[in-house]
């Protein structure tokens, strides 16, 4: 009997760790006052925005998510009235789970500089992004090439150009 | 002899003393010279200057606490080829990373001490100067950190670092060399790793026919040019553009981009790949996109060495990509046929693609004496 309980316990423990596949998150770090770790639920806490953009199929799609500068402001990045002087030499480096990296100058993300919206999206046409694209993807409104619409985002790091 | 000695006896004491001194001095010099050439060869000194083409870019990776020096590289090369670093004194890094095979070993799974099988296929060591994540799953963050794995892994060299340190300390050569490189003769695991890493950074491959083409000194054949076009272009059947889009993952002058992807080998990968430490389902069977430099020399292919030839590799990409949640987005919906599910290259195109892959062989790299086994002359 004891033996069976042990086996049962081991089995449960085993299933426990199997089922516990981790949740993908985005880490916000670097030149910030409070580093953030954002999961799907956290993203819903921010104001939601949509951006329409063509995908590879050539059709318009509606992406929804959160304006990147809102997330950076929450982390204490020098945007808005603070985006001047040496802070204009800062950039955001976005990294994906495959190691791909793209960068944006902070000024490209700031409403005071541009009306173009750049969001961290988690949905396409109301549905979660496909596994190979998500759960988080940067969508750059109106940018001709899709290369900076980086998929499977895992980290956003604010840095000074050296 | 006898006469001389007798003659010596006749000389005044002071003079005799002088002569004895001279002879002793000469003897010392001779002894010194033989000792010098015997155990301490001349070690090149000074900063090591990396030579590479400008189109490789300068995003190189040399940690601030391990600058590359000529003496460090010299020591690192000896250690890279040092079988004493293995439990059986038979295996060195060079056993599984052979220069003639662009630093691979020709086996599906590498064989370590006591014929133990490594769990994965050996990786080519070329242009690591630009790499920032190491191993098939990218789990090592530096070359210095990487070294400890093969040294101590029971299926590779299988020897605790302390034992390696002890063995090297007991040799004539190494304590002196460590002194030249690090200022004192203390041997430590960290110093071993640093020297090996320095040597590995010098393994630069930049003279394949593709490099020569990019330098405008080689005119590719028609097949090579067609293959290059296919390699570099995405398929767009509606516009009549044929392509294989390998460049998305393997592109650039180095044919290495440091990306990690699942390239559709299995629907459920036996080897978890990156998922083993990220715990994400989308990372299952996700591996480093390896360099294609010298690819014709590094068979068999993939993390488990499942494909014996480049034909099999190209067939895989053309017809056998397996769907799964972790399959790379770049390999989904890529086809040369309208609405097609797979790449569908024609037999001729496959040949052209392989002609291009053969352009990546750098025969200078695999014969460069600076990278060869320095123990060779004494060992064999």
Would you mind describing this structure in some detail?
The complex is a heterodimer of chains A (about 160) and B (about 375). Chain A is an alpha+beta fold and about 160 residues long. Chain A has one domain: Alpha-Beta Complex (Sulfite Oxidase, Chain A, domain 2). Helix content of chain A is about 20%, strand content about 35%. Chain A has helices at about 1-20, 40-45, 70-75, 105-110, and strands at about 25-30, 35-40, 50-55, 60-65, 90-95, 100-105, 120-125, 125-130, 135-140, 155-160. In chain A, the strands form two sheets. Chain A has a five-stranded mixed beta sheet. In chain A, strands 3, 4, 7, 8 and 9 form a five-stranded antiparallel beta sheet that branches. In chain A, a hairpin with a 4-residue loop joins strand 5 and strand 6. Chain A is globular and about 40 Å long. The termini of chain A are far apart. Residues about 1-20 of chain A have low confidence and may be disordered. Chain B is mostly helical. Chain B folds into two domains: about 55-205, Orthogonal Bundle (Cytochrome Bc1 Complex, Chain D, domain 2), CATH 1.10.760; about 210-365, Cytochrome Bc1 Complex, Chain D, domain 2 (Orthogonal Bundle). Helix content of chain B is about 40%, strand content about 0%. Chain B is built from 17 helices and two strands. A two-stranded antiparallel ribbon of chain B has the order 1-2. The longest helix of chain B is centred in the first third of the chain and has 27 residues, at about 15-40. Chain B starts with a helix and ends with a helix. Chain A: InterPro entries: OxRdtase_Mopterin-bd_dom, OxRdtase_Mopterin-bd_sf. Chain A: Keywords: Signal.
């Amino acid at each position: 009997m004891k033996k069976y309980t042990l086996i049962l316990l081991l089995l449960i423990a085993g299933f426990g760790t199997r089922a516990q596949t981790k949740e993908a998150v985005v880490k916000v770090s670097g030149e910030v006052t409070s580093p953030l770790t954002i999961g799907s639920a956290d993203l819903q806490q921010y104001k939601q925005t949509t951006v329409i953009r063509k995908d590879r199929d050539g059709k318009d799609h509606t992406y929804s998510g959160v304006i990147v500068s809102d997330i950076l402001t929450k982390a204490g990045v020098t945007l808005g009235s603070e985006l001047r002087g040496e802070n204009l030499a800062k950039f955001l480096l976005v990294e994906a789970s495959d190691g791909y990296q793209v960068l944006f100058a902070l000024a490209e993300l700031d409403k005071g500089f541009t009306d173009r919206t750049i969001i961290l999206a988690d949905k396409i046409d109301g549905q979660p992004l496909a596994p190979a694209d998500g759960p988080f993807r940067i969508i750059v409104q109106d940018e001709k090439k899709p290369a900076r619409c980086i998929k499977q985002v895992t980290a956003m790091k604010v840095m000074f150009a050296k | 002899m006898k006469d001389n000695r007798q003659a010596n006896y006749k000389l005044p004491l002071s003079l005799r003393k002088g002569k004895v001194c001279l002879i002793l001095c000469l003897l010392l010099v001779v002894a010194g010279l033989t000792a010098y050439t015997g155990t301490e060869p001349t070690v090149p000194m000074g900063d090591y200057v990396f030579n590479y083409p400008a189109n490789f870019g300068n995003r190189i990776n040399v940690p601030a606490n391990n600058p590359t020096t000529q003496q460090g590289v010299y020591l690192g090369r000896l250690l890279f080829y040092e079988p004493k670093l293995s439990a059986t004194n038979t295996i060195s890094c060079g056993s599984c990373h052979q220069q003639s095979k662009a630093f691979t070993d020709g086996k599906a799974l590498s064989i370590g001490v006591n014929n133990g099988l490594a769990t994965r296929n050996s990786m080519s060591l070329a242009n690591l100067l630009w790499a920032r994540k190491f191993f098939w799953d990218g789990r090592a963050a530096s070359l210095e950190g990487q070294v400890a794995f093969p040294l101590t892994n029971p299926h590779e060299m299988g020897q605790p670092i302390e034992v390696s340190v002890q063995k090297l300390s007991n040799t004539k050569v190494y304590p002196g060399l460590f002194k030249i490189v690090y200022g004192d003769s203390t041997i430590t695991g960290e110093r071993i790793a640093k020297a090996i890493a320095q040597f590995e950074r010098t393994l630069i491959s930049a003279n394949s026919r593709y490099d020569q083409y990019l330098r405008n000194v080689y005119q590719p054949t028609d097949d090579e040019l067609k293959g290059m076009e296919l390699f570099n272009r995405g398929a767009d059947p509606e516009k009549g553009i044929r392509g294989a889009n390998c460049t998305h993952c393997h592109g650039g002058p180095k044919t290495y981009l440091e990306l990690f992807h699942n390239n559709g080998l299995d629907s459920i990968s036996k080897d978890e790949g990156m998922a083993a430490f990220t715990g994400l389902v989308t990372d299952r069977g996700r591996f480093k996109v390896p360099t294609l430099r010298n690819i014709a020399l590094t068979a068999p292919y993939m993390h488990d060495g499942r494909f014996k030839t480049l034909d099999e590799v190209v067939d895989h990409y053309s017809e056998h990509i397996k769907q799964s949640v972790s399959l790379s987005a770049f390999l989904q919906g890529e086809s040369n046929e309208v609405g097609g599910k797979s790449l569908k290259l024609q037999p001729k195109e496959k040949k052209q693609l392989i002609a291009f892959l053969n352009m990546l062989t750098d025969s200078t790299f695999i014969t460069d004496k600076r990278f060869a086994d320095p123990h060779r002359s004494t060992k064999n």
